[in-house]
Amino acid sequence: MNDNWSLKGTLGGSITQNRYNREDLRADGLKSPGAYSLDSAETAVQSFPYKSRFEYSSLYGIINAAYKNYFFIELSARRDWTSTLANPYRNNSVGFTYPSLNISYILSDAVKLPSSINYAKLRASYSNVGSGGTVPYRTSYGYGPLPVYDAYGNGNYYAAPSVLVKPDLKPLRTTSYEVGAEMQMFKRRFGFDIAAYMGNTKDQILQSIIDRSSGYSGEIINAGTVRNVGLEVAMNGTPVKAKKAGGFKWDINVTYSTNKNKIIDIPDSSVVLRTGAVGSGQIVAKVGGSMGDMYGRGFVRSPDGQVVFDPATGNAKITEEVVFIGNTMPIGKLSIQNAFTFKNFRLSTLFDGQWGAVGHSLMHYKMVEQGKLQVTVPGRYNGIIGNGVLEVLDASGQVTGYRKNDVVATDIDEYYRSMMGVDNAEGSSFSTDFIKFREARIDYTIPAAYLKKYRIDKITLGIYGRNLFIWSPWPMFDPEFGTLSGTDINQGFEIAQFPSTRTMGANLIITF
To answer: How many CA atoms lie within 13 A of 489 on its CB side?
Structure first.
């Protein structure tokens, strides 16, 4: 290889082991109020021990090549073997290999560009990523302790698994392609980084809901193929910068991302991935749809989308079958950070937001059911006429048209049950769009001249606040909710959400 090229490589391997031990002791009730200890338990203490472990081994290699310090190539390959896929009865290997290729070209070093452009870089990459997951025992039939509500649930009795295992579980594989560009301009007063990507993910390891008459509540599956297409943009700039040192300066950073996914292939016509608490709410994957699609019973609607009401009761009509409600994954996210400095003071703020997703609120439904929300006040004393239409029927009972609803609903409890109650998942589903005042802080740095005799390099005092305000149509506390389910955090269904925490604080940083 000539002097214009440089080449280097790396070979390596690793073995990683994960061991998890948990001793879960439970009891209901207290003999003495406020004495939160097992000694004060009113009922027998129950023990639920749990142990798990998994291991994966890896071999990898990387080759880096550079041409004249402006054209770079990186080629890597890795092979993993993981116990989470292992099973004594399978014949095929649990090992899987995934390569990657990255190419970058620093345009500003290779050719002469206009003086306004300080730096320019183009890049492209291909990657194939594999994973066997980090949840053990999904390929083998195993027993677990009886649940706490069982009369024999004391850790000495075990039950058959409720999730059907998959002995020949395959590793998840994602193939991605990305192109991007970076640029700094106007003496680095403005810059951007833009990337577009497309990825195909196949054999996702998921737990689907199945008919309980099978003896199981769910099964582990390898889902089909999902295609993701997205765009990410980051911009930074300095709109104002005083010529004098220590003068006023304004820096701004903006990030934007959008992603859309489409299910290309799936083992069945549709797969229920999660279920909600009311109205047959469920997350369903089907060919042509998207991961995160939410379905549930909802309003019967006219062709132009208006809610259809019952002419006998004035209550909203609800579908017998589930209907599409929306997708639980946001289409786009945006954040804007500003920093203002003047002499030894610095003020920074961060706003961010998302849009395009929906979620179902169990708390909203429960508070409607109990009449604790302001939206349930109208009609309590004089009845209410729902905003929608009535069906116009012919002599044979066929719908021939629609007219404006004029029927007064007098049973207000049943009216709001039809609008937002236990049978209507759509009625308590809302947009999770939001704008958040995520953070603000102000810092003061003591001039270095005052610190020399104390041998201190720097002292900075600051006050800050996080999660200061939320603007959102979400009716409960925070649209960024997550429901804990075992070791997973499920999006889409809010269950007993607690208010998010606003944090205020101060800090002192001393550097020697």
So the answer is: 4
